[in-house]
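quick one, two chains, predict together pls
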Amino acid sequence: MKKKKRAGPGRPEGNSFARDKILKAAEMAFAEHGYAGTSLREIVKRAHVTQALVTYYFGTKEALFKEIFMCRGREIATKRMQSLKALADGGGRYTLRDVIASYLRPALEMRRTRDGRAFIRLQARMHTEPPRFADRLRREVYDDTVREYLSAIRKVAPQLSDRTAYWRMVLMIGAYLYAHSDAHRLAEVSRGVCDPNDLDEMLEQITAFVVGGLMAPDG
Amino acid sequence: MKKKKRAGPGRPEGNSFARDKILKAAEMAFAEHGYAGTSLREIVKRAHVTQALVTYYFGTKEALFKEIFMCRGREIATKRMQSLKALADGGGRYTLRDVIASYLRPALEMRRTRDGRAFIRLQARMHTEPPRFADRLRREVYDDTVREYLSAIRKVAPQLSDRTAYWRMVLMIGAYLYAHSDAHRLAEVSRGVCDPNDLDEMLEQITAFVVGGLMAPDG
């Protein structure tokens, strides 16, 4: 009987299917246990691959996390930018409501899939238990978008001071991240009257609230 | 030489000073590493006490966490209730702004001390990485207050539907928790224009935003 060929020290067995499997497993693990609470061993176990394969594709846990965050975050940021550009290209006659809905929609849409929901949860965790490198990563992915939206908002709400515009942008982010990541609380508080899985309703409700908040008298 | 008296199996050396030391150490540890990420061993180390003492006072990690959450949470809830009662006793001529500021102020005031800030952070973590028993605990501490405030809000904003009132209450909670727990993001986004440590400004900004959001047209 021919001796089975041993894997060499170079590239382990693998393909892009395996790579995806690792990314998805890692995304779920990070969403459930946070960055600090997830070990490479846990990811290896979930993905049903070898540790060598994870190391081969991503190197370290930090690199793997960054890959996930950049990829998903950029998807959201790109959609936000496209949607804002579409508004501007439409002759510039857009309302604050259009701007806010454009901002909120991409992250909301991500909730339609199980993996997407895991990412949204992972992202919400980044502000309560930020890994060391979170600030830089978040800036890299989102800051341009936040600035573009701030200037679009100020175009339709020119009465806002600098300070108030920044404050309200951050409060908007807080409100929507919470509605996403802790949907359970809504069901609990409303004793079932509100359905946190109705994404159209969620978009309507957050948009109306945020537009009202942004338009409040300043100071 | 007289043999040193061995501690019996009963009450270890300790006093209420030690008990407080343990509570504070645990609060900091839970805020930094979350519930799952904190071990009793870590708490023992921070508090400079023996594990026996921690076990004597609190039993388990879960019991210790509950003690902290109930104690701080009740402090916030009680102040909210008192402040709402004071509004009602003032002849009932209060505005939505008064109601919202009453709700927000107790948690904001807690930020004035280092321990208080740790609790606010711990509480924010509960929605991104809830321990198993979080829902029940949160309901127990906060649900009565949330209901009282909902009915006060609806008294001054009777145009809101049930569904919208619940949604907006939850969005308010999200906005303020985020502003508290991720104050860093505000400094980052505003490039230093906003000061997240100015508590009066924080109360003003969140109140104005939330009042605007609550008063937005419904549906």
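The longest helix of chain A spans residues 61-89.
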